[in-house]
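To whoever is on call:

I kicked off a structure prediction for a single chain this morning and the downstream step that reads the tokens threw a length-mismatch warning. I double-checked the sequence; it's 328 residues and nothing unusual in it as far as I can see. Pasting both halves so you can look.
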Amino acid sequence: MLNRWFSITIFITLFWIGLSFTVFLYTTFVTGSSEEILYIRIQGEISQSTENYVRDAVSVANYRQSRLIVLSIDTPGGYVDNVESIMSIFDVSKVPVLVLVEPLRAVSGGTYILMASHVAVMKPGSVIGSCQPVSAAGEPITESKYVNYLVKLMSSHAWLHTRNETVAELFVTRNLNLNAEEASRLRVIDFMAEDLEDVLTKLDFLIKYRDGEATRFVLTTSTGTQKYQVTQTWSFENISKGAIHYFRSPSEFLSLPSYIFQFSNIRFPIFLISPVVYFYPYIYNVFVVPILSLFVSPTPVTLLAFFSVVNAAIGIVCILFTISKRKA
């Protein structure tokens, strides 16, 4: 009789866990478009935690189908690998990314990030430039193989977003620096703005258009779209009335996966490394992003996703507890 009740209990609990995960997976596909603007802020050096923070924010914005991501940035630069990764995150985002340089600067790595944005904006008085790479000791790197790559990385993103490629190259080759007024006049940025509210009133249309076999982006007006072979359009009509949500993620403060991976370089015992790290890339979009969405604002869908995970976790604990008692 006890074995029968034990089997029934396990079956019911497994059904409960399966139902909870099914509901959770369903919630990842039922999000609707949102009128919100997701706002994030980078201050200080660009590092692995910065990359994780931006990745989380962009993933959440795409999950919630936000209208716009606004990245406010004030940085002296940072690590090249992390800067490149952030640029790649922008490249694959379905939600446009607007970078606003305020209040002082986005030099070195910050300028690369600005050039990779769909919309580039600077606050009057802010500065960009000084993009020549330096070593860990702060010494300028002049090796052509490295410098030429960064020149092309900068100019190709300027081209992609219909900005001044020649000036973009000078950021790297000549350590050119520009204030907001100069950057606007030389078509390195799209416009100047005093603050986020001012930014939202100046947005009109962002289009993706065909240029030969390639596609490029440009910020334009409703009448300006007629000059291009448009393949996709993002309208910012009435966006100033949208809700602005500030996103803060645990990854802003903690870069756990990359930190644990570093142990593999010193042959850290494999059994001490959490299996979550290895499955993280596969479960990120399905499980992590919906939970991170709760850090923006709870919605019925995200709350349902959260409680589904809690139910599944309770079910797993119940099974483990039952098995331990049975063995005892």
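Update from on-call: the warning came from a stale cache, not from the record. Cleared it. Sanity check on the structure: Residues 220 and 309 are 44 Å apart (CA to CA).
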